[in-house]
Amino acid sequence: MTSPAPSNPAPARPAALNSAGLAKNDYKGLPSTLCPGCGHDSISSRIIDAAYALGLRPHMVLKLSGIGCSSKSPAYFLNGSHGINTVHGRMPSVTTGALLAQRGHTAIAVSGDGDTGSIGIGQFKHAVRRNVPMVYIIENNGVYGLTKGQFSATADQGQTLKYIGTNDLPALDLCAEAILAGAGFVARSFAGDAKQVTELLKAALSYKGIAVLDIISPCVTFNNHDESTKSYGYGKAHEVPIHDITFVPEFDEIRVDYEPGEVLSVRLHDGPTVQLRKLGRDYDPRSRLSALALLEGARHGGELLTGLLYLDETRPTLLDTQHVHDTPLALLPEALTRPSPQSLADVMRQFG
Amino acid sequence: MINDFTIQVATVNGSGSQTANATLVDALFHMGLPVNAKNVFPSNIKGLPTWYSIRVSGEGFTARRDDPEILVAFNAKTLDEDLRALPPGGVMFYPDHLKPAAPRDDVSLYALPANAIMKEQEVDVKFRDRMANLVYVGALAQVLGIEMTAIHDYLTRNFAGKPKVVGANYDIAVAAFEWCAVNLTKTDPYTLRRMDATAGKILIDGNTAAALGAIYGGCTVVSWYPITPATSLAEGLIEWMPKLRQDSETGKATFAIVQAEDELAAIGMLVGAGWAGARAMTSTSGPGLSLMAEFAGYAYFAEVPLVIWNVQRMGPSTGLPTRVSQGDLLSTYYLSHGDTRHVILLPATPAECFEFGWRAFDIADELQTPVFVNSDLDLGMNAWMSEPFTYPEQPMKRGKVLSAEDIVALGGRFGRYQDEDGSGVGPRTLPGNDAMGAAYFTRGTGHTELATYSERPEDWQRNLARLDRKHEHARTVVPEPVVSGEGADTGIIAMGSTHPAIVEGRVMLEREGVDTDSLRVRALPFSPAVRAFIAAHERTVVVEMNQHGQLAILLRTEYPEFATRILSVAHCDGLPLTGAFVAARVKAALPSPTRPEEVNA
Ligand SMILES: Cc1ncc(C[n+]2csc(CCOP(=O)(O)OP(=O)(O)O)c2C)c(N)n1
Ligand code: SF4
After folding, report:
1. Using CB atoms, which residue from A59, A93, A326 is nearest to B269?
2. Which InterPro entries does UniProt cross-reference here (chain A) (predicted)?
3. For chain B, is the Cβ count within 10 Å smaller at the N or the C terminus?
4. Which ligand 2 atom is nearest residue A141's CA?
5. What backbone torsions phi and psi does residue A223 show, to the nearest 5 degrees?
6. How many C-beta atoms surround the C-beta of residue B413 within 10 A?
7. Contact at 8 Å (CB) between B442 and B302?
8. Chain B residues within an 8 Å CB radius of A94
């Protein structure tokens, strides 16, 4: 359906510019190829909002990702940023190297729960240990999206998927893993909560060490309840094939908005309901132990706790501990990276 | 026998014989004698047998030899076997508390009162085992004619600032020296005489040389994971980087060295750093290389420059971790899945380790690709005589990196993977470039010339064809082979640390009337000169240290028209090749001279 062109177009209003002198449009990416309604796309939009709000200069942002539907998303925001889509689970090491080479950049790294919680769990924990100064976003949908619906390490115990069966294993809590490994900024949110995601992203982007954001991001496609209109079978009947995913059901994005301290039940596209509880305004995120206890309590209560869970601004970052030069290593002049001929003669004397 | 023999020191791993052995080698070197030392050690920290062989060769040969004439038998467990292997006329030094089960009267046996000297010198029981090694140093000095001043010099340098330690060690050597002067009757024919063959030269191992080369190559990011025999390369960087690469004005490091959690992370960091414009490197060995495969293919395909030193050890699998091999040629060349072919540099000497240390970065930047440097344990961990290293002759080559102005001049659009000059190499920008249109999204998935995602067959094929062109172009960028000799029917092709054995083997062949030319391959892909060499010889014998003749396989694949003229001599037992081996096996590979009665009518 095409709508008729307006006969009398309104004069274009100049776009609002942020502190960097850029319009919201300057933070856009390519059109997404993810399934319509995928939570990952909401997160991309929030990254655009936050980057615009903070007035980030896109060319000083590095976009990094691993492999998975989630990891495709850096293509869908901040076209003006230098980006690298790496290999499955190993984005953290690439980010580490990139920031060693080009300090001064803001690194926005996107990963999935499979990418981070399974193949990449080691690199995730070590990037956290090193306190690589990056925003580490986990677009957590509890399944492998791009390989079409296997359990990830964050899938709920007891959950059933059509071709895979029942998940007997306990879920990894990536926020708890991050806190244990030494992360100084750990937050959890829900992709549909635009306000909270944006606020947390803004805080994370302003944080100086590694900021881990575990964002529950529903996968609209891997929905296995046959009785539901949103089931695999239903979807199949309405199949619209794109790239390497079998079908794309047309789901609306799930959106929520609720106050700190409140509990909210959200029904996901794949059937189950999540209990979201937003941390109250009086929550003090400065104790590791309370944060872990809170996560454990929430897990027992079947709730998904959202908000800034833990904050510690005292840990030195990788760049501090390495005493890396203020000029990015990649841009140092040759005079600083190639010692003099005299120095070589001195070294040679020591071996003579 | 003057200045031409091998001393083999048999000790127990972890018994501190390193100092004693290094003292001997250094003293010989400073007496102007061409010397080479090889440590044959077990993959174990303490208790197992280890051998250290020191070859002195007035003629300047530095390859390993099979039969040491002089045995220092300080390991009870191997004493009898070591003695049995001694050639007639040989000589054995041993501590008098070890008794050979079957003494031989065709060799000289010198029993040294090691324990008595330890007691007399009042060496603390804790240190006795370790210090007893200085007894053989003093004894060899007396019997063979090593200068005690050279020994003292080394100890002073090695224990700089610790005069007590120098004194304690030296006193033991002196005590042994004097005891031998009084009590020992020399019955062996081996003597050392000062020469002038090492003036101006240095003594260094390949891994240290490589580390220094990298430092002079402007390496700024190092990420590594411990593995024998590559560890000492990273340790060389850790030792020398702070000395040579601290900004004197700010005191800040112009480099970063990270010990990664594994090899996957090590190469991952290089990918990030290389993409972001830093000169990044790692050192690893076989098992680590296997783990790096996925990222190696990624870097090849996304065209990210980085440098990987593969200090080869014996595989497959965990193999012989402390023994030498050239068995990774094929796995390195094709590392990763799909149609991947890498650039490999093949150093043969410490001077080349230094040169390739910096040159690898130029090549990686110029070609925008991972560059592997396949060294090995023998070259990397053993001490070699070398000319002092030459300072890099030209400024660093950073390849096609576009500035913001370049992008503006191009109208805000550039083809990251576009081949403009037939070299197959496209231009790139570095993060931070603020020109509109400078940013691009790198990926290992199929992409167009503009770096956008594509699954179109034409895009895929165009990309691979360009990478093939780049591979062809690489032939002209990598170091040329070194050719020696001219006009012989037989050519020998070899690579890396077998070089000294080839040199000596050719001399041995020549003495037997077999004339050969040789070509030492210094890089993959092969330079056109390699083909020319094969074409110019009736037959080419490829000598290498692996089981399947991997270099020969590659040569036959590359030059099928000459396949039948390419003969393979491959050997793989964990020990460096000897000149005698090369001579014998090359000779055996040649067609036997046709005897008249065999001429067909
Ligand atoms: C080494 C390797 N193993 C397996 C794969 C296949 N693979 C691609 S995406 C993916 C899972 C992605 O899941 P997740 O990170 O949860 O992201 P999502 O697609 O759900 O957003 C896997 C296993 C791969 N690309 N590389
Ligand atoms: S499969 Fe799931 S995760 Fe992947 S794009 Fe579709 S909805 Fe998103």
Report:
1. A93
2. 2-oxoacid:Fd_oxidoreductase (IPR051457), THDP-binding (IPR029061), TPP_enzyme_TPP-bd (IPR011766)
3. C
4. 3
5. -125, 115
6. 10
7. yes
8. 268-269, 271-272, 275
Ligand 2 pocket member A35 (CB < 6 A): yes
- CA pair distance B98, A118, nearest whole angstrom: 57
> C-alpha distances in angstroms, A54 versus A34, B24, B85?
26, 66, 77
DSSP designation for B496: G
Ligand 1 pocket check for A153: Cβ under 6 Å: no
Give the total residue count for chain B. 601
Nearest one of B98, B44, B46, B47 to B71, comparing CA atoms: B98
Q: Which two tokens stand for residue B466?
A: 């360009």
The two three-digit tokens of residue B285, written as one number: 């060995």
Residue A305 bridge partners (DSSP): A277
Q: Chain A contact for B479, CB < 8 A?
A: no
How far is residue B450 CA from its own chain's centroid?
40
Alpha helices in chain A (DSSP H): 39-54, 69-72, 91-101, 113-114, 121-130, 174-181, 194-206, 232-237, 288-300, 318-321, 334-337, 341-351
Q: Cα separations (Å) of A74 from A70, A110, B13, B234?
A: 8, 7, 54, 34
Ligand 1 pocket mutation pick from A67, A140, A214 by most atoms within 8 angstroms of CB:
A67
* Residue for token pair 């083909």: B531
Per-residue CA distances from B66 to B99, B312, B323 (Å): 25, 22, 16
Q: Is A28 within 8 Å of chain B by CB?
A: no
Chain B residues in contact with A95 (beta carbon < 8 A): 272
Q: Determine the topology of domain A24-331 in CATH.
A: Rossmann fold (3.40.50)
* Residue A273 neighbours by CB distance under 10 Å: 10
Over chain B (601 residues), the average pLDDT of each successive run of 10 is: 96 91 97 96 91 97 96 96 96 97 96 96 89 96 98 96 96 98 97 97 98 98 98 98 95 97 98 98 98 98 98 97 97 98 98 98 98 98 97 97 98 97 98 96 97 97 98 98 97 98 98 97 98 98 98 98 98 96 97 62 50
Domain chopping of chain A, boundaries: 24-331
Place of tokens 């790692």: B282
Look at the alpha carbons of B117, B123, B126, B129 in this order and tell me if their dihedral is positive or negative. negative
CB neighbour list of residue B398: distance below 8 Å, 6 or more residues apart = B365
Q: Give pLDDT < 70 ranges for chain A.
A: 1-11, 223-251, 269-272
Residue B430 sits at the chain A interface (C-beta within 8 Å): yes
Query: Which ligand 1 atom sits closest to the C-alpha of A146?
Result: 19
ipTM of this model?
0.95
Q: For residue B131, give every residue at least 6 positions away whose Cβ sits within 8 Å of its Cβ, in sequence order, or none.
A: B16, B118, B121, B123, B168, B169, B172
Distance from CA of A343 to the nearest CA of B (A): 8
CA distance B202 to A348: 7
Which tokens go with B202?
């240095």
Q: What is the distance of C-alpha B297 from the center of its chain?
A: 25
- This prediction has a pTM of 0.94
Shortest distance between the Cα of B517 and any Cα of chain A, in A, equals: 33
Give the CA radius of gyration of chain B: 27
Residue B157 CB neighbour total at 10 angstroms: 11
